[in-house]
Write a structure and sequence with these properties.
mainly beta, about 160 residues, about 50% strand, 4-stranded antiparallel beta sheet
């Protein structure tokens, strides 16, 4: 755990400065469709119908299936792996967007359960050995939902 804590660092994406985060409502979220990692390439396989694009790792479809309008947003180094935040829009009017963490290492990848509050406005921070995603709550504009990823599972705080 200590190695995990010591090696957790922002690898790619925007670092969030807490002072700057307070002055802006929500930071712009990085977006890419290809990510080279030391363990292989994560990429979006486009489709004629945009909501049917698929996420691939090393040219093979990621399972469980992740499809929709897919953006590879943030990447963090965790010990001997990388944690990648994926944003997915399926075109649903009831839930604009969902998120997944994918942990990639020399053995392959592990996909989290989908999570989020259906908002494209997010802020990602680190708290010790955990990655924390905050987003406006579906329950009201004055509330914030927080999701914590420990490298294995996501839980709502």
């Amino acid at each position: 755990m200590r190695a995990f804590l010591c090696s957790l660092a922002l690898c790619i994406g925007c670092a969030v400065n807490p002072a700057a985060a307070d002055s802006a409502p929500w930071p712009a979220v990085p977006s890419r469709t290809v990510l080279q990692t030391p363990y292989g390439t994560l990429s979006v396989l486009s489709n004629e119908y945009i909501y049917e694009s698929r996420l691939t790792f090393e040219g093979k479809l990621v399972e469980p299936r992740i499809s929709g309008i897919i953006n590879i947003t943030y990447v963090y180094k965790i010990a001997d792996s990388q944690a990648v935040l994926i944003a997915v829009s399926t075109g649903s009017k009831t839930c604009e967007i969902t998120y997944y963490w994918i942990r990639i290492d020399s053995k392959g990848y592990q996909v989290s359960e989908p999570f989020g509050s259906c908002s494209s406005e997010i802020r990602v921070d680190t708290e010790g050995a955990q990655l924390v995603l905050s987003t406006p709550s579906i329950d009201g504009a004055d509330k914030i939902d927080t999701w914590v990823y420990d490298g294995h599972t996501v839980r709502r705080r």
